[in-house]
Amino acid sequence: MPQLLFRSASLNDLVDDVLIQVLQTSSPQTILSLRKTSRRYYFLTKVWCIWYEKFRTEVLARNLPIPGPSHSISLLRAAELEYRTLRAIYLQRRWPRLRAHAYTANTTNRELVDQVILIRGGTQILTVHMNKLACWAIDDRNPMDDMPSRLTQVAEWSSPSEEKCKVSKESKGLDIIVVGPKHQALIRGRANGYAMVLALGPKPYFRSLCEYSRVPGVIAGITDNLLFVDTTAEPGGGGLELLDWRAQTTGTVLLPCIADLFGGFVGYELFSGHIIVVWETAISVFPIPTVPEYGQVVIEHIRVFMLHEVITRPVAFSTCVARALSDTIFPTSQQAPLSLTIAARPMTKSARVSMSMLIPHASDDLNDRCPFPYSLARLSPFVPGVTGDQERGYVGQTCTDICLGPSGRGLCVVGQEVRLCTPSLLIMPPCEMQFGPAFETGEPIYELEGSGESGESVDFDEGMGRFAIAKASGGFEVVQLV
User: Per its UniProt entry, which superkingdom is the organism in (predicted)?
Assistant: First the structure.
C-alpha cells in the first residue's frame, strides 16, 4: 500500500482573496504582526477593505471618539483608516494613564495669541491675534507617526474691523466658523457688532458664507444653520437671539432672560431636540424654533431648573456619547444621549468645578406628559488638591478653562495645572446610574506658563488626544497625550 504524505496547512497556501477575509476578522495587533513577516503580507495588510472593516468594528461599533476630520469613510485612504483605528484604540486603552508630550511649538513668531482653536478633527490649529486669524497645519510626515515635526501656516485672514475679534467653531464638527467682536460695542445705546460666517478651505481657505454688518450683541456660537448671539447686555435686557445664517435673513428669535432671576448668560447646548440655555442661576429649556424672515419672535421656555449655586464661565457640556459619523451605513451601538452634564466654575469658589446633570425622569407616565422629561441632579464638585490645598498653593487659584468632548473625555485648568477628565459610571440616588465626566485628582498632566483669559487659552480634541495652549509669553504650543 503506497504511503500517503500529508503537508501541514499554512496561511501561505491561501489565495489573496481568502487571506484578506481572514485579516478582516483578525485583531489589529495580529495584522501588524503579520506585516513584518514577509513582503506578501506587508502589502496585503495595507489593503483598504481590511482597515475599513477594522475602523467600523473597532471604532464606530464601540462608540470611540473618532480621530481626525469628520469625512466620509469611503473617501479615506487605507493608511488614514489604519492610523485612525490604531489611534482610537491606543487612547481608549491608555486613557487617562497618559503623559503630555509638547511635540510642536510656534517659536518663530512670539506674537501674543488671544485664542487658540483646534479644527478639522485636531489636525489644524486656528489662532486669533487681535483682529487677525492664522491657520496652521500639523505636518504629519509619516501617517503612523504620533509626533509630527512642525507647524506650517497655511492661511491668514484679517477682520474688516480693527477691534479684537472672537471666533466660535460649528458645534457638530463642520468646517465652519463665525467671527465677531470680542466685546460688545454700543453706538447711541444700540449694539454695533458684526458677524461673518466662514468656511475653512481648501482654496480659498477662508471663504465667506454669510455676513451681517450689524448684530444685536456678542457672538455666542454657531450650528449648521443657526447663529447664536448673546444680547443680555442690551439696555432693558435681552437673552439669547437666534438668526438663520443659511437663509441670510434678518429675522430673529429671542430666547428671553429674566435678568433679575436668571442673571447673565453663561452658555448653551443642543440636547434631546431642545436648546439648553445656562444662566448664572438657572437653566432654561427651549424648543428649537423656526426663525422668521423678518422681525422678531419671542419663544417662552418650557422648563426652568434653578441651580444650587451661582456659576459663571468657563462652562462645558458632555453627554458621554461619542459623536457618530453621519454617513455610517452599518448598524453600530450608537444610541441617543441619556443625560447631559454641565460643568462650570462657581462664582464664589473659583478653584472648583460645579457639576450638574440632566437625567431622564424615572416615571414613564411623567415622560408622556412632560415636553422635556428630564430632571436636574446635583453632582459632587471637582476640587483639585483636596488634601493639600495650602501646600500645593491652591488658595486664590482660579479655574480658567474647562474643555469636554461628547464622549466625556476632556480637561480643566486650575491655576497653572492641567488635569484630565474621563467618562465614569456615576451613582445617582436613590438607585440611578449614569455615565458622566470625572476629573482626575492625582498629579496634573501638564503645567502652564501662566493662566490666560477664561475659555481662550486652551482647546482640546478628544479624538486625536491633544490640546493647544496659548502661551502667556507669546506664541502657542501643541501637546500630544501619549
Answer: Eukaryota
